[in-house]
Structures are given as C-alpha cells and as structure tokens.
Amino acid sequence: MIDIKKRSECPISSSLDIWGDKWSLLIVRDLMFAKECTYGDFLKSEEKIATNILASRLQMLESAGVITKKDHPQSKAKVLYRLTEKGIDLLPLMIEINLWADRYFTLPASRKEMLEEVKKDKEAFLRNKKAELLAHAE
Fold first, then answer.
1. In the prediction, which pLDDT does 20 show?
2. At what angle do helices 91-104 and 22-34 cross, to 10 degrees?
3. Average pLDDT by consecutive 10-residue portion of the chain (138 residues)?
4. CATH class assigned to 11-137
5. CB count in 10 Å sphere of residue 37
6. Where are the domains of the chain?
7. DSSP 3-state assignment of 31?
8. Exposed, middle or buried by CB within 10 Å (0-12, 13-18, 19+), for 35?
9. Is residue 65 classed as helix, strand or coil in its secondary structure?
10. Residue 75's pLDDT is what?
C-alpha cells in the first residue's frame, strides 16, 4: 500500500497528490474512454509510458482507490484495470480539460465529435457517461 502524503490541506493540492501528474491522468483517460485496460494496453498508448512509471502509477492509483484490478477472463497472466466510483467521479474534470483543449489545440475528429455532444447538453452527457461507467464497474 502506498502512503499518499499531502503537501497541505488545500483541496487542489491534495487532489493533485493523487492524480496530478500527466501519467496518472492519462491512465484515468484510457480507463474512462476504453472502460478497462490491461497493462499492455496502457503501454500501447501513443504517449509511450515507460514500464517502471506505469507500474508505479497503477499501484498508486489503486492504493488511492481510483482504480481497481480484476482477473482477466481469458488469461491468468493478465489483469484488467477499471475505474472505481472515486475514479469515475473525475469525469467532469476530464470533460473540462477536453473543453479547454478544444479552445486551444487541434483535436482529433473522434474527440471533437464527443465534445459536440457535451456542448449540446453537458449535464445529460455527464449523467449518461457516469451511468455507463458505473454499470461497467460492477
């Protein structure tokens, strides 16, 4: 179990202690939009995370209760990672990051399509996506 030390009582600082590095948020992103991933799936992402960093971040996110792992149905050598309810609660933050990026960067068509849906009715999108993720987490 990793002990997550808080730098201060500030809620932003305390939150960043858990998911504030780029690799942790990319792991959450992958789980949020792919729903479950294996260790190998994370290694295939275009950001090219190093194996030692991936192992460390997965362990830290699991210890913090953001992700969980379960047995892979087709392989005893693999595990599947999923978001917990605590991890799923990062959805509004992830959407806001995407909306911010949409203003300042060129996004891929698939992401733009999702954001158009968000812009039509953000609350409905968040409610539906959270329900989908929660159903998948069970």
1. 80
2. 100
3. 66 82 93 88 93 95 94 87 95 95 94 95 96 86
4. mainly alpha
5. 20
6. 11-137
7. helix
8. middle
9. coil
10. 86
∠97-62-25 over CA atoms, to 5°?
15
Q: In the structure encoding, which two tokens stand for residue 88, read together? A: 């799923």
Separation of CA 10 from chain center: 22
Give pLDDT, residue 4: 61
Q: What is the pLDDT of residue 21?
A: 86
Torsion, Cα 76 71 50 44, to 10 degrees, reads 90
> For residues 42 and 52, what is the distance between their CA atoms, to the nearest angstrom?
12
**Do residues 109 and 122 lie in contact, with contact meaning Cβ atoms separated by under 8 Å?**
no
Structure confidence at residue 6 (pLDDT)? 67
Give residues with Cβ within 8 angstroms of 114, minimum separation 6: 98
